[in-house]
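Chain A, query sequence.
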Amino acid sequence: MAMRCAYHPESDAVGACVRCGRLVCAECKVELQGKIYCNTCAEEILLDKAKREVSKPVAAIITEENTSGQGKVAVIPQEIRGWNWGAFLLNWIWSIGNNVWIGLLALIPYAGVIMAIVLGVKGSEWAWRSKRWDSTEHFRRTQRTWAYWGAGVIGLIVVIAIIAGLAD
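Chain A, predicted structure.
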């Protein structure tokens, strides 16, 4: 019989908190410095660290931890927030590459336009939460590459359309 998450009994556990021993599913798992914690223990650890480092703003302490790939509990660094051109221009392709599966809604006729805009607005946050990144700089560099490819594909489509229009 599969072990179940202490917080989500309907989900299989993927590990146990090294601090309290509670079993956690993929959604609840928080990884700090290579160790698995439950949400409660991770919050306590981060708050304790913030209290010890009073000279730093709390937001700076929390964002020092790389929380990418940790789902809903991931802290979104300020420097990655904002419009994501790669997600907007390459929507469903970008979604697969960044493990943002809701982006596949862009394949639905008419809803795709709305989803492209939503991906432009929320894409960076979703990608940070859905995939493990080495650092914020790694994340920004990768997303910039997606944006360049998106602009290139759109530019190529425009050139082909102009050539096809002139051929008539």
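The chain is about 50% helix and 5% strand. The radius of gyration is 20 Å.
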